[in-house]
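Listing S7. Sequence submitted for prediction.
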Amino acid sequence: QVQLVESGGGLVQAGDSLRLSCADSGRTFSDYAMGWFRQAPGKEREIVGAIDWSPGSTFYADSVKGRFAISRDSAKNTMYLQMNSLKPEDTGVYYCAADVQPRRWIGLPTRLRDFGSWGHGTQVTVSS
């Protein structure tokens, strides 16, 4: 059974950095594109970024481009989200997710429905 577990969230001040981790078990991790989403109170879940199953291709939402970076370590079955220059508007619950299909050949998954497995989320709070 697939299980995704996020960690690394917390309370930080604006301008600080955090690194989130997403540990994946129960699958061939390296066969699946992965993504990070976030959800602020009262708002819809939105994509933060995604990384291809064959590392090298990434996607970032405009709001985080240049500040956040996604990476993955297949040896550890873990994906990371490095968040720098955090802003109060980055506050929310951050979720990691796995593509619904292995070895997607065309493009990166970026829509909610492209992802079939989800973690339970980790809270990130950025104070001003």
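Caption to Listing S7: primary sequence and predicted structure tokens for the chain studied. The mean pLDDT is 94. The chain is about 0% helix and 50% strand.
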